[in-house]
Known about the structure:
CATH architecture: Orthogonal Bundle
Oligomer: single chain
Radius of gyration: 19 Å
Shape: elongated
CATH class: Mainly Alpha
Largest sheet: none
Amino acid sequence: MTRDEILDAAAQIFRVKGFHAASMQEIAQAVNLQKASLYHHVSSKQEILLALLDRAIDLLIEHIEKQLNRPMPADEKLRLAIRAYLQAILENRDLAAVLLLEHRSLEPRYHALHIPRRDRFEQLWRNLIQEGIEQQILCPHDPAMASRVLLGSMNWIITWYKPEGSQSPEKISTQYADLFLYGLLARQGNQ
């Protein structure tokens, strides 16, 4: 039994039941361990939650940084980053659900350990939006607020997206990018 297998099982249980309703006994059973044996791999449910949150953030940072390092205008990078983000959370739904819905369950000392990673992730988006402002591609708005709006709208995809639905993640990411970059107002020539 590996720690990664334990974390994978815990992510699925936390997504289905929620962090507070899940038990260490259920996690142990999911990986065919006795509860006492589980404690040889992890010390607590809080440790598992922190490990899952950090794993999720690290995965997202990796996906987003690949797009940000491309030599292209900021709006094109933003489109690629949106696609990469949505694809990553849809391909890792258990992990994404834990990140987006259970982060508030961290006790203060674990929360303090997680915050620097979360801030680094959010800074990637702020920097990208600032880059677009500096290139005069994006309007000069507050990059922190703009990134929160964008991330907030994208995050809810985990609650409504259905793989068997009519739209692929690629089509959805294009629509998100268009809405974010162009808004809902009709433009001259588009009427």
